[in-house]
Amino acid sequence: MSVDRLMTTLCTHNLLASKQFYQTLFGFNVGFESEWFIQLVHPKSNVELGLITAEHELVPPRYQGAASGLFVTLVVEDVDAVFKAAEQKNYVVLQTPEPTFYGQKRLLLEDPAGVLVDVSTPLPI
């Protein structure tokens, strides 16, 4: 069995705000957009992220609330630049960039859907 593609899809109650968050902070482009679903694609890495309206019929009722028990990690070249942009846009910063014991500088944000977003940059060795 092979896996040909993996795309994380986040449920959101505000599709536009979620799209703007990932475009503004991380440079994602829209690969596909409809009234209820957006596929974001990063131009350098082709990493994909899906956004779906939480209330859509494809989302089982039990999963239409805020995300819980997961976080999305995005490894970027400059976590401090993401932090600065997040502050300028008044996004929710849960933890300012800090070095970790595992060799990365880590920033924690909350996206408009309430998803925990871990933004990291590897520290020089």
UniProtKB/TrEMBL annotation:
Signal peptide positions (record): none
UniProt domain VOC: residue ranges: 2-122
Name of a matching Pfam family: Glyoxalase
Protein name as annotated: VOC domain-containing protein
Organism for this UniProt entry: Vibrio penaeicida
